Amino acid sequence: MSRPKILLTGSAGQLGFELAKTLAAHAEVVGRDHATLDLADPDALVAAVRGVRPQAIVNAAAYTAVDRAENEPGRAHAINAVAPGILAEEARRLDALLIHFSTDYVFDGKATAPYAEDNTTGPLNVYGQSKLAGERAIAQGGAKSLILRTSWVYGLRGSNFLLTIKRLATERNELKIVADQFGVPNWSRALAQATAELVALGVPTLGERAGVYHLSAAGSASWFEFARAIIGNKQHPRVVPIATSEYPTAARRPAYAVLGTSKLEATFGISLGHWRELLAECLASAS
Ligand SMILES: NC(=O)c1ccc[n+]([C@@H]2O[C@H](COP(=O)([O-])OP(=O)(O)OC[C@H]3O[C@@H](n4cnc5c(N)ncnc54)[C@H](OP(=O)(O)O)[C@@H]3O)[C@@H](O)[C@H]2O)c1
């Protein structure tokens, strides 16, 4: 099978950085970070796609500052909704595939069992609204696309819960962590490896099975459980469970945002391990 040419946006982000490495085994990757391609600039986006002429576009760039988005809805919408729509239109012109990442925050969190791809959406915050608008803009753009929804991304680079907890653990004796919001922690490298496995199936195969898929590790956790797992069996610091109401944030977050992944497994035979195993692997890779 010939190696497709892939245009990768957001190549310096948590997920983008890992994708740049893992996709290179299966494709010729042209990576663009924020400095070299601004998704808020529609002309630059069009020029980049027409210049590279990829067989696939992997969009790992996004406005991910969930709380800040409440005060910057226009910017969040431009990057998370308008830009993916432009990428989809440009992909359609080239008959290329668009692989795009979305979020568990498209849901309202009122479910009590893992969300399926076709469950009703109802984002509670501006970030989730902008990402849902991005999914819809891609559908309107008319390209063959895979929309991969994931959740709670962490890794050893960038800004994420794991690195925050590791830092706070050296600064404080006690950490108060929200215990009534449930989701699934996902290691950026595992997400990138699964995406590379998808690409290895071949762009035409993916195009035939275009759609929305949930890409997530197995299991579920509260932020409190995730923090406890990061700290491990160390006695210090003490981790104390608190309610969401005791930790006010600008953006509301879903109470339950676990993504069911059976569609991805049934369609492509791809699944990630349990989040606890992947966290252990991630922490081991740091030492
Ligand atoms: N992080 C999570 O917990 C989470 C959860 C669910 C879904 N997701 C989704 O997963 C995907 C990857 O997220 P991530 O965790 O890798 O986020 P990330 O670490 O914040 O990476 C996003 C990248 O996009 C870049 N970016 C921001 N604005 C841009 C612009 N205008 N033009 C070009 N690049 C821009 C950022 O650059 P700067 O740093 O320079 O701004 C950053 O490198 C996103 O679609 C996100 O919505 C993430």
Descriptive overview:
With 287 residues, this protein is an alpha/beta fold. 41% of the residues lie in helices and 17% in strands. It has helices at residues 14-23, 42-52, 73-94, 126-141, 161-171, 188-200, 203-208, 223-231, 262-268, 275-286; strands at residues 5-9, 28-32, 56-59, 97-103, 144-150, 153-154, 174-178, 182-183, 186-187, 211-214, 221-222, 238-242. The chain has a 6-stranded parallel β-sheet, sandwiched between helices. Strand 1, helix 1 and strand 2 (28-32) form a beta-alpha-beta unit. The longest helix is centred in the first third of the chain and has 22 residues, at 73-94. It is globular, with a radius of gyration of 18 Å. It starts with a strand and ends with a helix. The model has no long low-confidence stretch (mean pLDDT 95). NADP nicotinamide-adenine-dinucleotide phosphate binds next to helix 1 and strand 4. NADP nicotinamide-adenine-dinucleotide phosphate (NAP) binds at residues 10, 12-16, 34, 37-40, 60-64, 79, 101, 103-104, 131, 150-153, 158.
Keywords:
single chain, alpha/beta, two-stranded parallel ribbon, six-stranded parallel beta sheet, 287 residues, 12 strands
